[in-house]
Amino acid sequence: MRHQGIKLVMCCAVGAAGVLSGCAAPRINTTMLTTPDIIKMTDRMAESLNASAPIAGRSPASQRWVFTMDRVTNRTEHLLDDSEKWGIMARFRANLARTMLANERAVAFVLPAAEWQRYANADFAPEQARLRPTHALRAEFRSDTASSLTSRRDAYLCAFQLLDLESGSIVWEDSYEVKYSVVRNSFD
User: Fold this and answer.
1) 44 and 93 in contact (C-beta within 8 Å)?
2) Residue 99: domain span
3) How many domains does the chain have?
4) Whole-number pLDDT of residue 66
5) Is pLDDT larger for residue 28 or for residue 92?
C-alpha cells in the first residue's frame, strides 16, 4: 500500500514537472521559403517591373501589350507543387493589377494557353476570343544548399523575366535572394 502511494506521488511529480517546464510544441527550424518571403518577393518584383524603363515609359495611348504567364520553373531541392508555383505568380499579377498597370501602361493579362483550353466547350471557341500574347512573364526558382552533420544553409534565387515573344528578347529581368541557415542539435 505504501509503495502505491509513493508511485502516485512520483507520477504526479513527473506530470507537474512537465507542466511547469512548459510543455510547448517543439520549434521547427527550416531553411525553406516562407510566406513572408513570398510576400516580400512578389511585392519587390511588382515594384521593379513597374519602375523599369520599358514599362514606366508606356502611356495609356501606347500599343497594348498582352502578358501571359506561361512558365514557372522550380530548380530548388524543395518541392513546389503547381498550386504553389502558380499561386506565387497569381500574387505577382495581382500586385501588378493593383498598380493600375493595365490602364496607365496599356497592358492586359491573359491566361496561359493550357489554362485557356480548360474553358473550351462546344459553344465557345477560345482561340477566336483570346487576345494574342505579345509578352511572357516567367519565373525560375533556384537554390544552393550546403549541409553537414551540424548545420544546413540554403540560398534561394527567384529570378523573373519579361520576354518579348516576337523578338525573343528580354525586356525586363530582376531577382530576389534570400538565405537561411540552421544549426542542428545533437538529437536532431
Assistant:
1) no
2) 26-183
3) 1
4) 94
5) 92
